[in-house]
Structures are given as structure tokens and as C-alpha cells.
């Protein structure tokens, strides 16, 4: 747990600094929590992308605890905000390490181009391998040759099996064949990497529903996870992405990437509060080990507390 907190403290440094500086500036030396201070805090929280609903809720929480903050200052405000954020994140749903697992456990990875989807797929494979599970990666992105090549490299690096179809072939057929192979080889985990697409492209979203349907026909209950990969730098556009992908393929969790380079890490809170979709994984760099199973308490602490 200490390693996770240390990594998140580093990754969320820009977001945390922005929030803490905003709180200090709003409260000032007098630590008086007047309406001007509350308005300034609201702006700071919105800028960190915790979402308008969350920002308004947190401001009301601070307003109702004026006496406590007047005596405790920034530390008291930080404690109240951190506790509320942790509660919101926990209410969104089950953490990934508490999920029941079928065999093979089928994970479908979806997302917009450029979010780090294939890289996340590879790092997730490595995470599963470190847990002692056998893994198969399926390149269901048949449109982009580079995606298949990239995924094959991740398979080799993580010690995973790899299956790909013909260029321009049917993505759902690749997923079906991969699941058949995973069953035949008694593989623990199958991760299906799909083609990156804009969340506004209806025909491509329909392809995802086909892949999901085909997996379910081959193995009832599959896919057991549908992970939407979101770039933390996307900001509030991530909410519209999550809504449309969820409508198409019923997202079970979020993999939030590029947290190490953004001051907008609060988007995890916005997604949890407004869509009730849990964050399952966070990406904190480009290395094979730069991925963490999401923990609400650790994340809330790293987002707002200095230590």
C-alpha cells in the first residue's frame, strides 16, 4: 500500500498542488470562510476536473463546517474534502481486486484513439502475470497494423500468449476465435484489445456491441469486465465518452491513464459521482509496471493531502 501511495502522490502531484494552492489562496492568512472564499474554492475544484456536481457538493460541505475550518484552516478543509471524495469513489462500485473471476476471465478493452488503450492492455497483462495468472492477448483491432504489432510486443514482454486476425478482417471473429483458444488452452485471463474509435462514431460503437455479443455467445457471462480507457487530460469530455461507451457496451470500470502529467486528475471523482462507474486501474507512466489497481482511500489521499 505504501508503494501505491508513493506512486500516486507523485502522479497526482500537479493536481494536488493546484487544489492545495487554491485552498490556501482562498482561505488566506485569516482562514475566514466567507462567500468569496467559497467561490474561489469552487473554481479551484472545477479546474481540477472533479466535476461541477462534486464541486458544488464540496462547497456546501465546507459551508456547513465553517466553524471547524475557521479553527482548523486548510488542514480541516482538506480532511473534509478527502473524506467526501473517498466516500463518492467507494459508492461508485466494486474495486477490481474484489471481482469474482470466471476461467477464462474475459476482459474487453475499449476507448478513443490516443488514450493509451493498447499500452494499458499490455500493462494489464503484465499485472495479471505478476499475480501468477496465465494470460492471452487478442488483437481485435484489425484496422491498424501498428496496433497488432504493438500488442504482440506487449505480449512478449509480459509473457502472454497472443492471437491476431487478418488485416481488415472481422474483429468479432478474432474475439470469438481467441476465446475459443483461451478455453482450449485453459488460460486464466483473456484480454481483448479493440480498435480505438471516437465515441461519436455510431457504426464503430455498433461493432463493439457485436464483439460483446459474440463473446457472450461463446461463453455465457463474457466479457466479465469491459474497461474503458480514458486519458486524464481529456477533462470533462471524458464524461461524454463514458456515457456513450456505457450505453453501447455497459462499461464495468475505467482505466484512467496519464495521471502523471496532468493537473486534472479529479476526473475520476466526476465519473464516479455523475455516472456511478468505478475506476479500476490507474496509469502512472510508460513502463510495464506503471499501472495500479485503484484504491479509493489511497487515491483520495493522494489527490488532496500533501502526505
Kindly summarize this structure in a few lines:
The protein is of the alpha/beta class. It is about 55% helix and about 15% strand. It has two domains: about 1-90, Four Helix Bundle (Hemerythrin (Met), subunit A), CATH 1.20.120; about 100-295, P-loop containing nucleotide triphosphate hydrolases (Rossmann fold, 3-Layer(aba) Sandwich).
Polypeptide structure, described:
- The chain is α/β, with parallel strands linked by helices and 307 residues long.
- The protein has 2 domains: 90 residues, Four Helix Bundle (Hemerythrin (Met), subunit A), CATH 1.20.120; 195 residues, P-loop containing nucleotide triphosphate hydrolases (Rossmann fold, 3-Layer(aba) Sandwich), CATH 3.40.50.300.
- Helix content is 54%, strand content 13%.
- It has 12 helices and 8 strands.
- The chain has an 8-stranded mixed sheet, sandwiched between helices.
- α7 links the parallel β2 and β3.
- The longest helix has 26 residues.
- The radius of gyration is 21 Å and the shape is elongated.
- The two termini are 14 Å apart.
The CATH architecture of the largest domain can be named as 3-Layer(aba) Sandwich
How is the CATH topology of the largest domain named? Rossmann fold
CATH superfamily of the largest domain: P-loop containing nucleotide triphosphate hydrolases
H/E series: HHHHHEHEHEHEHEHEHEEH
Number of strands: 8
Helix % is 40-55%
Q: Work out the helix count.
A: 12
Apparent shape:
elongated
**Class by alpha and beta content:** alpha/beta
Radius of gyration: 21 Å
Text of the CATH class of the largest domain:
Alpha Beta
Instruction: Give the strand content.
Output: 5-15%
Q: In the residues, how many domains can be counted?
A: 2
Neighbour order of strands in the largest sheet: 3-2-4-1-5-6-7-8
pLDDT < 50 stretches: none
Largest sheet composition: 8 strands, mixed
Question: Mean of the pLDDT scores?
Answer: 88
Terminal CA distance: 14 Å
Amino acid at each position: 500500500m505504501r508503494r501505491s501511495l508513493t506512486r500516486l502522490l507523485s502522479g497526482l502531484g500537479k493536481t494536488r498542488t493546484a487544489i492545495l494552492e487554491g485552498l490556501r489562496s482562498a482561505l488566506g492568512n485569516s482562514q475566514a470562510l466567507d462567500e468569496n472564499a467559497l467561490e474561489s474554492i469552487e473554481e479551484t475544484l472545477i479546474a481540477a476536473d472533479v466535476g461541477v456536481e462534486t464541486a458544488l457538493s464540496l462547497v456546501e460541505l465546507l459551508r456547513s463546517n465553517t466553524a471547524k475550518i475557521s479553527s482548523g484552516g486548510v488542514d480541516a478543509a482538506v480532511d473534509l474534502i478527502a473524506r467526501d471524495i473517498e466516500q463518492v469513489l467507494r459508492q461508485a462500485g466494486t474495486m477490481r481486486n474484489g471481482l469474482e473471476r470466471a476461467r477464462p476471465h474475459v476482459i474487453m478493452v475499449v476507448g478513443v484513439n490516443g488514450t493509451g488503450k493498447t499500452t494499458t492492455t499490455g500493462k494489464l497483462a503484465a499485472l495479471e502475470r505478476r499475480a501468477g495468472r496465465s494470460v492471452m492477448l487478442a488483437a481485435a483491432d484489425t484496422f491498424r497494423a501498428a496496433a497488432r504489432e504493438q500488442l504482440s510486443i506487449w505480449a512478449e514482454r509480459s509473457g502472454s500468449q497472443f492471437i491476431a486476425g487478418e488485416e481488415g478482417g472481422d474483429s468479432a471473429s478474432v474475439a470469438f476465435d481467441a476465446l475459443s483458444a483461451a478455453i482450449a488452452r485453459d488460460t486464466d485471463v483473456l484480454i481483448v484489445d479493440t480498435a480505438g474509435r471516437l465515441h461519436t462514431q455510431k457504426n464503430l460503437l455498433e461493432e463493439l456491441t457485436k464483439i460483446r455479443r459474440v463473446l457472450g455467445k461463446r461463453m455465457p457471462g463474457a466479457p466479465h469486465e469491459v474497461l474503458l480507457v480514458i486519458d486524464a487530460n481529456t477533462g470533462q469530455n471524458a464524461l461524454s465518452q463514458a456515457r456513450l461507451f456505457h450505453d453501447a457496451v455497459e462499461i464495468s470500470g475505467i482505466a484512467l491513464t496519464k495521471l502523471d502529467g496532468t493537473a486534472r486528475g479529479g476526473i475520476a471523482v466526476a465519473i464516479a459521482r455523475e455516472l456511478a462507474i468505478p475506476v479500476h486501474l490507474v496509469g502512472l507512466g510508460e513502463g510495464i509496471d506503471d499501472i495500479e489497481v485503484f484504491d479509493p482511500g489511497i487515491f483520495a489521499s493522494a489527490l488532496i493531502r500533501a502526505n
